[in-house]
């Protein structure tokens, strides 16, 4: 059985590159992330391709605007078939609640499945120097947990957060709250532009529900072997 806790990031500009990687990985991977780079370049056609392949799609556009704009934007994106969408938690409680409520209502009115809605807490590229430069007086960890609790209160299904904050979020928000963890790198891999990272096993042990992995698979000499190695490590944590 495919481990759908692994989400492979499709950080490409062109659908042709997506098709090559997805076909290479075959049945070993069932969940893919489509971010700004790809969606802004290719649009909904890449989601259509992935759904035709029977894959789950995390549409990672991190909406952040006034409540009505975010809510209507999500409703527009919903019809494209993504399974998971997100907003920035820093947009606040009213924005998140408006988005969650209206998305669920629109899905019910159209008779389609409502995608899961999660909120980005603090980007995993943010380090302590960046954080202090924003004038924040609390720690990154404290703010992440505060935003996660706010997202749950607003009716969202979960959050995006680094592995360093996962255990605290799990304790604060309970066992059914989704925690999607980017910045996951197998032991020995380059950290690239991430600051708060973890190995697949440690992220799951801390309480993550899904792991986002990009370069360690995409840039590997043998992407399928790299994906299978990560999945094997994940399967050691139930």
Short summary of the structure?
The chain has 238 residues and is an alpha/beta fold. It is 47% helix and 16% strand.
Outline the structure in words:
By secondary structure, the protein is an alpha/beta fold. Helices cover 47% and strands 16% of the residues. An eight-stranded parallel barrel has the order 1-2-3-4-5-6-7-8, surrounded by seven helices. α5 links the parallel β4 and β5. The longest helix is centred in the middle third of the chain and has 18 residues.
* Largest sheet report: 8 strands, parallel, barrel
Distance between the termini: 14 Å
CA-based gyration radius: 17 Å
Strand/helix succession: EHEHHEHEHEHHEHEHEHH
CATH T-level fold name:
TIM Barrel
CATH superfamily: Aldolase class I
How many beta-strand elements? 8
**Strand line-up across the major sheet:** 1-2-3-4-5-6-7-8
**How much helix is in the residues?**
40-55%
Q: Look at the structure and give the CATH class.
A: Alpha Beta
Q: Number of helical runs? A: 11
Features:
single chain; 238 residues; alpha/beta; eight-stranded parallel barrel; 47% helix
Task: Provide the fold topology.
Blueprint: E1 6-9, H1 15-25, E2 31-35, H2 36-42, H3 45-52, E3 56-63, H4 67-78, E4 84-88, H5 93-110, E5 116-120, H6 128-133, H7 140-153, E6 158-160, H8 163-173, E7 178-181, H9 200-206, E8 210-213, H10 215-218, H11 223-235
Parallel strand pairs: 1-2, 1-8, 2-3, 3-4, 4-5, 5-6, 6-7, 7-8
């Amino acid at each position: 059985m495919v481990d759908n806790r692994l989400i492979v990031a499709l950080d490409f500009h062109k659908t042709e590159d997506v098709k090559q990687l997805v076909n290479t990985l075959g049945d070993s991977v069932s969940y893919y992330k489509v971010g700004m780079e790809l969606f802004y370049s290719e649009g909904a056609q890449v989601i259509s391709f992935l759904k035709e392949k029977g894959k789950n799609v995390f549409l990672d556009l991190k909406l952040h605007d006034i409540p009505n704009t975010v809510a209507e934007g999500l409703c527009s994106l919903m019809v494209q078939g993504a399974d998971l969408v997100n907003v920035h938690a820093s947009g606040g409680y009213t924005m998140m609640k408006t988005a969650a409520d209206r998305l669920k209502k629109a899905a019910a009115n159209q008779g389609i499945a409502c995608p899961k809605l999660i909120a980005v807490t603090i980007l995993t590229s943010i380090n302590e120097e960046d954080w202090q430069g924003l004038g924040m007086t609390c720690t990154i960890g404290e703010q992440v947990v505060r935003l996660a609790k706010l997202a749950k209160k607003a009716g969202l299904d979960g959050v995006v957060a680094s592995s360093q904050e996962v255990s605290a979020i799990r304790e604060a928000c309970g066992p059914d709250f989704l925690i999607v963890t980017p910045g996951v790198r197998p032991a020995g891999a380059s950290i690239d532009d991430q600051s708060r990272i973890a190995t697949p096993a440690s992220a799951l042990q801390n309480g993550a529900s899904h792991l986002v992995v990009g370069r360690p698979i995409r840039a590997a000499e043998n992407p399928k072997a790299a994906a299978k190695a990560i999945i094997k490590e994940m399967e050691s944590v139930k």
